[in-house]
Write a structure and sequence with these properties.
The chain is α/β, with parallel strands linked by helices. It folds into two domains: about 200 residues, 3-Layer(aba) Sandwich (Rossmann fold); about 110 residues, Helicase, Ruva Protein, domain 3 (Orthogonal Bundle), CATH 1.10.8.60. It contains 13 helices and eleven strands. The strands form three sheets. Strands 2-3-6-1-7 form a five-stranded parallel sheet, sandwiched between helices. Strands 8-9-10-11 form a four-stranded mixed sheet. Helix 2 packs antiparallel against helix 3, helix 11 crosses helix 12 and helix 12 crosses helix 13. It starts with 15 loop residues before the first helix and ends in a 10-residue tail after the last strand. The chain binds adenosine-5'-triphosphate and magnesium ion. Adenosine-5'-triphosphate binds next to helix 4 and helix 13.
Length: about 350
Amino acid sequence: MVSELTTKPNVDGGGQADIDHLRRLPSQLGQSIKGQNHMIGRVCSVFTRGELGFAHPRRPRGSFLFVGPSGVGKTETVNTVTAYLFNGGKPVRFDMSEYQLQSSVQKLIGESRDDPGLLGRALIGVKRGTLLFDEVEKAHPLVLDLFLQMLEDARITLATGEMLELTGFYLNFTSNIGSEETMRMENAPFASVERTVSMRVRERLRPELLGRINEVIVYARLNYATQREICEGMIGAELARLRALGHDLDLDSSVVEFLVREGYHRTLGARPMRGAVERYLQDAVTAALLAGDAGSGCITTDAHGERLVLRRAEIAPNRRSDEPARHVPLLSGGVPGRP
Ligand SMILES: Nc1ncnc2c1ncn2[C@@H]1O[C@H](COP(=O)(O)OP(=O)(O)OP(=O)(O)O)[C@@H](O)[C@H]1O
Ligand SMILES: [Mg+2]
Protein backbone atom coordinates (compact mmCIF):
# COMPACT_ATOMS: atom_id res chain seq x y z
CA MET A 1 0.00 0.00 0.00
CA VAL A 2 2.82 2.36 0.87
CA SER A 3 5.56 1.99 -1.65
CA GLU A 4 9.23 2.80 -1.25
CA LEU A 5 10.67 6.12 -2.24
CA THR A 6 14.06 7.06 -3.48
CA THR A 7 15.38 10.12 -1.75
CA LYS A 8 18.27 10.96 -4.02
CA PRO A 9 17.43 14.19 -5.83
CA ASN A 10 18.27 14.64 -9.46
CA VAL A 11 18.25 18.38 -9.51
CA ASP A 12 20.42 20.22 -7.05
CA GLY A 13 21.58 23.72 -7.59
CA GLY A 14 20.28 23.97 -11.15
CA GLY A 15 23.50 22.87 -12.88
CA GLN A 16 23.59 22.43 -16.65
CA ALA A 17 23.16 18.65 -16.50
CA ASP A 18 20.03 19.08 -14.39
CA ILE A 19 18.55 21.63 -16.79
CA ASP A 20 19.13 19.16 -19.61
CA HIS A 21 17.39 16.52 -17.58
CA LEU A 22 14.40 18.81 -16.97
CA ARG A 23 14.30 19.80 -20.62
CA ARG A 24 13.77 16.18 -21.58
CA LEU A 25 10.86 15.65 -19.15
CA PRO A 26 8.08 16.39 -21.72
CA SER A 27 9.45 13.92 -24.28
CA GLN A 28 9.96 11.32 -21.58
CA LEU A 29 6.37 11.74 -20.42
CA GLY A 30 5.04 11.69 -24.00
CA GLN A 31 6.88 8.44 -24.67
CA SER A 32 5.33 6.72 -21.65
CA ILE A 33 1.82 8.16 -21.67
CA LYS A 34 -0.04 7.88 -24.96
CA GLY A 35 -3.11 9.83 -26.09
CA GLN A 36 -3.03 12.44 -23.30
CA ASN A 37 -0.86 15.05 -24.98
CA HIS A 38 -3.06 17.88 -23.69
CA MET A 39 -1.69 17.35 -20.17
CA ILE A 40 2.02 17.20 -20.93
CA GLY A 41 2.70 20.96 -20.95
CA ARG A 42 0.76 21.62 -17.75
CA VAL A 43 2.20 18.66 -15.87
CA CYS A 44 5.77 19.42 -16.89
CA SER A 45 5.39 23.12 -16.10
CA VAL A 46 4.50 22.42 -12.45
CA PHE A 47 7.21 19.81 -11.98
CA THR A 48 9.85 21.89 -13.75
CA ARG A 49 9.09 25.04 -11.76
CA GLY A 50 9.06 22.90 -8.61
CA GLU A 51 12.47 21.43 -9.39
CA LEU A 52 13.87 24.89 -10.14
CA GLY A 53 12.81 25.94 -6.65
CA PHE A 54 10.14 28.44 -7.76
CA ALA A 55 7.36 27.11 -5.51
CA HIS A 56 6.35 29.18 -2.48
CA PRO A 57 8.87 28.29 0.27
CA ARG A 58 6.10 27.21 2.68
CA ARG A 59 4.09 25.12 0.19
CA PRO A 60 4.56 21.75 -1.44
CA ARG A 61 6.60 21.88 -4.67
CA GLY A 62 3.47 21.28 -6.70
CA SER A 63 0.05 19.65 -6.58
CA PHE A 64 -2.34 17.99 -9.00
CA LEU A 65 -5.74 16.45 -9.26
CA PHE A 66 -5.86 13.92 -12.11
CA VAL A 67 -9.42 13.00 -13.04
CA GLY A 68 -10.71 10.45 -15.52
CA PRO A 69 -11.86 6.90 -16.11
CA SER A 70 -9.91 3.85 -15.00
CA GLY A 71 -6.81 2.73 -16.87
CA VAL A 72 -6.11 5.87 -18.92
CA GLY A 73 -2.72 6.84 -17.49
CA LYS A 74 -3.32 8.93 -14.36
CA THR A 75 -1.21 6.85 -11.98
CA GLU A 76 1.23 6.00 -14.75
CA THR A 77 1.86 9.76 -15.22
CA VAL A 78 2.88 10.12 -11.57
CA ASN A 79 4.96 6.94 -11.75
CA THR A 80 6.77 8.14 -14.87
CA VAL A 81 7.60 11.61 -13.55
CA THR A 82 8.66 10.24 -10.16
CA ALA A 83 10.98 7.69 -11.70
CA TYR A 84 12.43 10.36 -14.00
CA LEU A 85 12.98 13.09 -11.42
CA PHE A 86 13.81 10.93 -8.43
CA ASN A 87 16.29 8.51 -9.81
CA GLY A 88 14.01 5.54 -10.43
CA GLY A 89 11.91 6.24 -7.32
CA LYS A 90 8.24 5.46 -6.85
CA PRO A 91 5.44 7.57 -5.44
CA VAL A 92 4.35 6.99 -1.85
CA ARG A 93 0.81 5.84 -2.48
CA PHE A 94 -2.33 5.77 -0.37
CA ASP A 95 -5.65 4.42 -1.55
CA MET A 96 -8.36 6.68 -0.13
CA SER A 97 -10.99 3.92 -0.35
CA GLU A 98 -9.19 2.64 2.79
CA TYR A 99 -9.54 6.01 4.53
CA GLN A 100 -13.30 6.51 4.65
CA LEU A 101 -13.76 6.41 8.43
CA GLN A 102 -13.30 9.09 11.03
CA SER A 103 -10.40 7.07 12.46
CA SER A 104 -8.57 7.29 9.12
CA VAL A 105 -6.72 10.43 10.17
CA GLN A 106 -5.11 8.46 13.01
CA LYS A 107 -4.23 5.74 10.54
CA LEU A 108 -2.28 8.36 8.59
CA ILE A 109 -0.64 10.42 11.34
CA GLY A 110 -0.73 7.97 14.26
CA GLU A 111 -2.78 7.79 17.43
CA SER A 112 -0.25 7.79 20.25
CA ARG A 113 3.20 9.14 21.15
CA ASP A 114 4.85 5.99 19.83
CA ASP A 115 2.83 5.74 16.60
CA PRO A 116 3.86 7.96 13.64
CA GLY A 117 1.04 6.58 11.44
CA LEU A 118 1.46 5.39 7.87
CA LEU A 119 2.40 8.82 6.53
CA GLY A 120 4.99 9.20 9.26
CA ARG A 121 6.41 5.75 8.67
CA ALA A 122 6.71 6.38 4.94
CA LEU A 123 8.13 9.90 5.14
CA ILE A 124 10.25 10.32 8.26
CA GLY A 125 13.76 11.06 7.04
CA VAL A 126 12.64 11.49 3.42
CA LYS A 127 13.10 14.99 2.07
CA ARG A 128 11.78 14.85 -1.48
CA GLY A 129 9.47 12.88 -3.71
CA THR A 130 5.86 12.45 -4.75
CA LEU A 131 2.80 11.50 -2.73
CA LEU A 132 -0.14 9.87 -4.47
CA PHE A 133 -3.62 9.80 -2.95
CA ASP A 134 -5.91 7.71 -5.14
CA GLU A 135 -9.70 8.09 -5.26
CA VAL A 136 -9.58 11.26 -3.18
CA GLU A 137 -13.38 11.66 -3.33
CA LYS A 138 -13.67 8.64 -1.01
CA ALA A 139 -11.55 10.11 1.80
CA HIS A 140 -13.29 11.02 5.06
CA PRO A 141 -13.85 14.80 5.48
CA LEU A 142 -11.29 14.85 8.32
CA VAL A 143 -8.73 13.34 5.97
CA LEU A 144 -9.58 16.10 3.49
CA ASP A 145 -8.89 18.63 6.27
CA LEU A 146 -5.48 17.07 6.65
CA PHE A 147 -4.90 17.48 2.91
CA LEU A 148 -5.87 21.15 3.16
CA GLN A 149 -3.22 21.59 5.81
CA MET A 150 -0.64 19.72 3.75
CA LEU A 151 -1.38 21.89 0.71
CA GLU A 152 -1.47 25.12 2.67
CA ASP A 153 1.44 24.78 5.10
CA ALA A 154 3.43 21.87 3.66
CA ARG A 155 3.73 20.40 7.13
CA ILE A 156 1.81 18.15 9.47
CA THR A 157 2.31 17.18 13.06
CA LEU A 158 2.31 13.46 13.79
CA ALA A 159 0.86 11.90 16.94
CA THR A 160 4.45 11.42 18.10
CA GLY A 161 4.88 15.20 18.16
CA GLU A 162 7.25 15.15 15.21
CA MET A 163 6.71 17.62 12.39
CA LEU A 164 6.69 16.33 8.80
CA GLU A 165 8.02 18.86 6.29
CA LEU A 166 6.45 18.51 2.84
CA THR A 167 8.15 21.39 1.05
CA GLY A 168 10.19 18.92 -1.02
CA PHE A 169 7.11 16.97 -2.14
CA TYR A 170 4.57 17.00 -4.93
CA LEU A 171 1.03 16.11 -3.82
CA ASN A 172 -0.94 14.17 -6.40
CA PHE A 173 -4.60 13.27 -6.05
CA THR A 174 -6.57 11.12 -8.47
CA SER A 175 -10.28 10.66 -8.92
CA ASN A 176 -12.80 8.84 -11.13
CA ILE A 177 -15.47 11.53 -10.58
CA GLY A 178 -17.71 11.87 -13.65
CA SER A 179 -16.39 8.73 -15.36
CA GLU A 180 -19.69 6.88 -15.60
CA GLU A 181 -21.35 9.89 -17.11
CA THR A 182 -18.56 10.49 -19.60
CA MET A 183 -18.61 6.79 -20.58
CA ARG A 184 -21.98 7.56 -22.09
CA MET A 185 -20.59 10.54 -24.03
CA GLU A 186 -18.92 8.19 -26.52
CA ASN A 187 -18.98 10.53 -29.48
CA ALA A 188 -18.70 13.84 -27.68
CA PRO A 189 -15.65 16.01 -28.36
CA PHE A 190 -13.08 15.94 -25.57
CA ALA A 191 -13.76 19.61 -24.74
CA SER A 192 -17.31 18.78 -23.64
CA VAL A 193 -16.14 15.72 -21.68
CA GLU A 194 -13.62 17.99 -19.95
CA ARG A 195 -16.34 20.56 -19.17
CA THR A 196 -18.70 17.92 -17.76
CA VAL A 197 -16.00 16.31 -15.60
CA SER A 198 -14.82 19.68 -14.27
CA MET A 199 -18.40 20.52 -13.32
CA ARG A 200 -18.83 17.21 -11.45
CA VAL A 201 -15.49 17.74 -9.70
CA ARG A 202 -16.62 21.17 -8.49
CA GLU A 203 -19.88 19.65 -7.22
CA ARG A 204 -18.16 16.86 -5.31
CA LEU A 205 -14.96 18.36 -3.94
CA ARG A 206 -14.65 21.30 -1.59
CA PRO A 207 -13.62 24.59 -3.21
CA GLU A 208 -10.91 25.12 -0.55
CA LEU A 209 -9.29 21.88 -1.69
CA LEU A 210 -9.59 22.63 -5.41
CA GLY A 211 -8.40 26.19 -4.84
CA ARG A 212 -5.13 24.96 -3.33
CA ILE A 213 -4.29 22.48 -6.07
CA ASN A 214 -2.02 23.80 -8.86
CA GLU A 215 -3.57 21.88 -11.75
CA VAL A 216 -6.78 19.89 -12.18
CA ILE A 217 -6.28 17.71 -15.24
CA VAL A 218 -8.98 15.71 -17.00
CA TYR A 219 -7.81 12.55 -18.77
CA ALA A 220 -9.41 11.37 -21.99
CA ARG A 221 -10.71 7.90 -22.75
CA LEU A 222 -8.31 6.05 -24.97
CA ASN A 223 -9.38 5.80 -28.62
CA TYR A 224 -8.53 2.80 -30.78
CA ALA A 225 -5.40 4.37 -32.28
CA THR A 226 -4.05 5.08 -28.78
CA GLN A 227 -4.93 1.62 -27.49
CA ARG A 228 -3.06 0.21 -30.44
CA GLU A 229 -0.02 2.37 -29.80
CA ILE A 230 0.06 1.28 -26.14
CA CYS A 231 -0.34 -2.34 -27.17
CA GLU A 232 2.46 -2.13 -29.75
CA GLY A 233 4.81 -0.72 -27.13
CA MET A 234 4.00 -3.57 -24.76
CA ILE A 235 4.40 -6.17 -27.53
CA GLY A 236 7.81 -4.69 -28.38
CA ALA A 237 8.91 -4.95 -24.75
CA GLU A 238 7.67 -8.52 -24.40
CA LEU A 239 9.28 -9.66 -27.66
CA ALA A 240 12.58 -8.15 -26.52
CA ARG A 241 12.29 -10.07 -23.27
CA LEU A 242 11.51 -13.33 -25.06
CA ARG A 243 14.33 -12.69 -27.53
CA ALA A 244 16.73 -12.30 -24.63
CA LEU A 245 15.61 -15.77 -23.55
CA GLY A 246 16.52 -17.12 -26.98
CA HIS A 247 13.14 -17.01 -28.78
CA ASP A 248 13.45 -15.29 -32.11
CA LEU A 249 9.92 -14.16 -32.88
CA ASP A 250 8.03 -12.03 -35.33
CA LEU A 251 4.32 -11.40 -35.61
CA ASP A 252 1.79 -11.21 -38.33
CA SER A 253 -0.40 -8.11 -38.31
CA SER A 254 -3.56 -9.87 -37.04
CA VAL A 255 -1.79 -10.38 -33.70
CA VAL A 256 -1.80 -6.68 -32.81
CA GLU A 257 -5.55 -6.35 -33.45
CA PHE A 258 -6.16 -9.52 -31.45
CA LEU A 259 -4.15 -8.25 -28.48
CA VAL A 260 -5.75 -4.78 -28.54
CA ARG A 261 -9.16 -6.48 -28.45
CA GLU A 262 -8.17 -8.76 -25.57
CA GLY A 263 -6.24 -6.10 -23.65
CA TYR A 264 -8.61 -3.16 -23.71
CA HIS A 265 -11.66 -3.08 -21.49
CA ARG A 266 -14.52 -0.61 -21.73
CA THR A 267 -14.44 0.29 -18.05
CA LEU A 268 -10.90 -0.76 -17.07
CA GLY A 269 -9.19 1.00 -19.99
CA ALA A 270 -5.67 -0.24 -20.79
CA ARG A 271 -5.29 -1.75 -17.33
CA PRO A 272 -5.56 -5.40 -18.57
CA MET A 273 -3.34 -4.76 -21.63
CA ARG A 274 0.07 -5.70 -20.27
CA GLY A 275 -1.28 -8.91 -18.73
CA ALA A 276 -2.99 -9.90 -21.99
CA VAL A 277 0.10 -9.21 -24.10
CA GLU A 278 2.35 -11.22 -21.78
CA ARG A 279 -0.07 -14.12 -21.36
CA TYR A 280 -1.00 -14.67 -25.02
CA LEU A 281 2.54 -14.28 -26.38
CA GLN A 282 4.04 -16.45 -23.67
CA ASP A 283 1.29 -19.08 -24.10
CA ALA A 284 2.04 -19.36 -27.82
CA VAL A 285 5.76 -19.90 -27.13
CA THR A 286 5.01 -22.26 -24.24
CA ALA A 287 2.77 -24.46 -26.41
CA ALA A 288 5.52 -24.64 -29.04
CA LEU A 289 8.14 -25.59 -26.45
CA LEU A 290 5.90 -28.25 -24.92
CA ALA A 291 5.37 -29.68 -28.41
CA GLY A 292 9.13 -30.12 -28.67
CA ASP A 293 9.92 -27.11 -30.83
CA ALA A 294 12.70 -24.56 -30.20
CA GLY A 295 10.13 -21.80 -29.75
CA SER A 296 11.12 -19.39 -32.52
CA GLY A 297 9.16 -18.32 -35.59
CA CYS A 298 6.11 -16.25 -36.41
CA ILE A 299 3.21 -15.72 -34.02
CA THR A 300 -0.19 -15.52 -35.63
CA THR A 301 -3.86 -15.89 -34.65
CA ASP A 302 -5.45 -19.32 -35.02
CA ALA A 303 -8.17 -19.98 -37.58
CA HIS A 304 -10.92 -18.98 -35.13
CA GLY A 305 -9.15 -15.84 -33.94
CA GLU A 306 -9.33 -17.10 -30.35
CA ARG A 307 -5.69 -17.66 -29.48
CA LEU A 308 -2.19 -17.12 -30.73
CA VAL A 309 -0.07 -19.84 -32.25
CA LEU A 310 3.59 -20.01 -33.14
CA ARG A 311 4.56 -21.09 -36.63
CA ARG A 312 8.04 -22.38 -37.09
CA ALA A 313 10.13 -20.68 -39.78
CA GLU A 314 10.59 -23.06 -42.69
CA ILE A 315 13.77 -22.41 -44.56
CA ALA A 316 13.32 -23.53 -48.13
CA PRO A 317 16.50 -25.28 -49.34
CA ASN A 318 16.85 -22.95 -52.35
CA ARG A 319 15.63 -19.78 -50.57
CA ARG A 320 17.42 -16.61 -51.60
CA SER A 321 18.82 -14.53 -48.75
CA ASP A 322 16.49 -11.61 -49.56
CA GLU A 323 13.41 -13.86 -49.58
CA PRO A 324 11.31 -13.83 -46.37
CA ALA A 325 11.11 -17.12 -44.46
CA ARG A 326 7.86 -19.04 -44.86
CA HIS A 327 6.15 -20.16 -41.74
CA VAL A 328 4.44 -23.48 -41.21
CA PRO A 329 1.88 -24.05 -38.45
CA LEU A 330 3.61 -25.66 -35.56
CA LEU A 331 0.58 -26.75 -33.61
CA SER A 332 -2.93 -27.64 -34.53
CA GLY A 333 -4.40 -26.01 -31.47
CA GLY A 334 -2.09 -23.71 -29.54
CA VAL A 335 -2.81 -23.00 -25.92
CA PRO A 336 -6.54 -22.77 -25.19
CA GLY A 337 -7.61 -19.18 -24.57
CA ARG A 338 -8.26 -18.43 -20.93
CA PRO A 339 -11.36 -16.62 -19.77
N1 LIG B 1 -2.32 6.72 -21.69
C1 LIG B 1 -1.60 5.62 -21.45
N2 LIG B 1 -0.40 5.43 -22.07
C2 LIG B 1 0.32 4.32 -21.85
N3 LIG B 1 -0.05 3.32 -21.03
C3 LIG B 1 -1.22 3.44 -20.40
C4 LIG B 1 -2.05 4.59 -20.56
N4 LIG B 1 -3.15 4.44 -19.81
C5 LIG B 1 -3.03 3.27 -19.19
N5 LIG B 1 -1.88 2.65 -19.53
C6 LIG B 1 -1.46 1.31 -19.10
O1 LIG B 1 -2.48 0.82 -18.20
C7 LIG B 1 -1.98 0.67 -16.87
C8 LIG B 1 -2.97 1.25 -15.89
O2 LIG B 1 -3.02 2.66 -16.04
P1 LIG B 1 -3.04 3.65 -14.79
O3 LIG B 1 -2.54 2.95 -13.58
O4 LIG B 1 -2.36 4.91 -15.15
O5 LIG B 1 -4.61 3.86 -14.64
P2 LIG B 1 -5.37 5.07 -13.94
O6 LIG B 1 -5.73 6.07 -14.98
O7 LIG B 1 -4.59 5.52 -12.77
O8 LIG B 1 -6.72 4.30 -13.50
P3 LIG B 1 -7.44 4.16 -12.06
O9 LIG B 1 -8.40 5.30 -11.99
O10 LIG B 1 -8.15 2.85 -12.16
O11 LIG B 1 -6.39 4.18 -11.01
C9 LIG B 1 -0.65 1.39 -16.85
O12 LIG B 1 0.24 0.76 -15.98
C10 LIG B 1 -0.18 1.32 -18.29
O13 LIG B 1 0.47 0.08 -18.51
MG1 LIG C 1 -4.67 5.07 -10.73
